[in-house]
Amino acid sequence: MANSTSKDPKAAPKDEEPAPAAPGKKRLILIIAVVLVLAGAGGGAWYFLKSPPPAADGKLDTSKTAKPPVFVPLEPFTVNLQHDDLSPQYLQVGLSLKVTDSAVVDTLKLHMPEIRNRVLLLLSSKKASDITTLEGKQALSGELMREISQPIAGSAQAKGIDSVLFTSFVIQ
Fold first, then answer.
1. From start to end residue, where is composition biased (Basic and acidic residues) (predicted)?
2. Less packed terminus of the chain by CB within 10 Å, N or C?
3. Phi and psi for 144 in degrees, rounded to 5?
């Protein structure tokens, strides 16, 4: 009769399973898997946090890094308008400039006397009938933009004026 404790390898009973892998090897595989999962999660988080998603039109969305607007208020202007009839008319207007950054503000302040002169000459050349409509005010805004940009045209901040905004507009 065959003894189950025999040393013959062919005589091993079929109930026995192969010996399990060493516990150190299982632990090493588990550690490597955890490291890979964490590295993948970290890389994914870095990708989504560092790169802005493209907009629907294919351009990058810069809203996360957009600078807040910088506004430069100008002192109010009061000028005589050109006569449409016999009675004189006056224009009192308040303006603010929307600029890209504080370097443009500094450049504008250096040239402010020349800018105010150009604005006064432009405004005093207008008739009330030319600037009372919405289209007239929009055209005037464009003309003011050109006149205000002229003194700084040679500087690095020449393109730094985004728009000319009316803060008050009174014709009497």
1. 7-17
2. N
3. -65, -40
